[in-house]
Amino acid sequence: MYDFVSLTDYEIGLLCADISGKGISAALMMAHLQALLHGRLQPCGDVRRRAAPPAVVSALNGDCWTRFAGHRYATLFYGEFDVRTNRLRYVNAGHCAPIYLSETGERIKLTAGDLPVGLFSEVDYQELQVVLPKGSALIVYTDGVTEALNLHGEDFGEQRLMRACRALPTGAKADTICELLSSEVLEWSAGVEQHDDTTILVLKAD
Fold first, then answer.
1. Model pLDDT, residue 35
2. Cα-atom radius of gyration of the chain, to the nearest Å?
3. Is 0.85 topped by the overall pTM?
């Protein structure tokens, strides 16, 4: 699942999550998680009183644990981007490491993170931050990208994803980045039925 939440005139929330399991029960957890997030982020009048990303994710974790008692969990990336400062404050709860594309062409995996949501009743999540100067971008994705299989049973893999990121044209916009990376994965997995969803979310600072 993925979602965008308008927080203020200058802040946006970004969510990318991958629910464990398949079928109706996984879909129910996805809907439950999305509803919880929107409920937690309802405008409270005073921006200073809004919960920070770690508190938001900790609350989601507690809610999911209460509802599913550890039988369901989700890896989750949640961030809040401020267009005034180009600063992204985020939590990575067991999700794939996002990839930072600098304005000078560097490609860096941001590997820090914590446990998935819903596995334990209480988890202390850490806030991570990255500044996105003009021209830089952040790629968030689900493991359906790296685990996409080809006709020989080989997965797309993280190294191939990084090579695809390094081959991106300088100055590519967010939708172009999504299209190019998606095309790479689709070409790799052509003719093979896939068993996981593929989601790519790109935040570009222009």
1. 83
2. 17
3. yes
